[in-house]
Design brief:
The chain is an alpha/beta fold. The chain has seven helices and seven strands, in the order βαβαβαβαββαααβ. The protein has one domain: Rossmann fold, CATH 3.40.50. The protein has helices at about 10-25, 50-65, 85-95, 115-125, 170-180, 180-190, 195-210, and strands at about 1-5, 30-35, 70-75, 100-105, 145-150, 160-165, 215-220. β2, α2 and β3 (about 70-75) form a beta-alpha-beta unit.
Length: about 240
Amino acid sequence: MNVLAICAHPDDAEIWCGGTLAKYALRGDKVTIAISTNGEVGSPTLPKEEIAEIRRKEAQEAADIIGAELIWMGYPDEFLFDREETRLTFIDVMRQAQADVVLTHYPQDLYNPDHTITGQIANDVAIMTTVPNIVTNHPPIAKIPVVYFIETLAGLNFHPEEYVDITDTIEIKQKMLAKHESQVGDWLKDQYGSNAAEMVEIISRFRGIQSGVRYAEGFIRAKAYPRNITGSLLP
């Protein structure tokens, strides 16, 4: 199966679905991580171009841990908008990844507009990925991908409907997150007084308590015709 995580910023995939992505990879699925913005505002001291390049390198190193492909979409951080060109890029990314499953932000994630817009566009364009008259760099895929929404920051206003047991991949998730040193050790602490590694541990443990395992990640599947399914495509 081909799995695509489309997230707003470098480190979002690792924080909210890194354990699940690791499980997909370990069982032999092809995993792609696409980042919609370049993370260029994510430093209290470094200029945009420098921090963007650092974050791209960190994202690649994190993806390499599970053998995932990285797609860097490169939109300006904090200024992602839903327009025709952006939608075509999202469609093309899904086609490039040959996505069967898409993991993306919950559209009601009000922490950051890039999260909201990324999730909304990814869900909106999924149905367009098979349409021949919508032309992008890659050809249409055969089947509309199934979309799953990932956690919001701190789990606010998010009530999972499905869970993935990540007890056996929590350490991989933490190693992936640790590659984002510019954020874990600098930006998030500077802006929010937040310890990202601690947050990952607490939320994963809380979702584990909810679902009867040690550590878990929570998801909500987008239920929409004609891409609804029986069962689950989560690992």
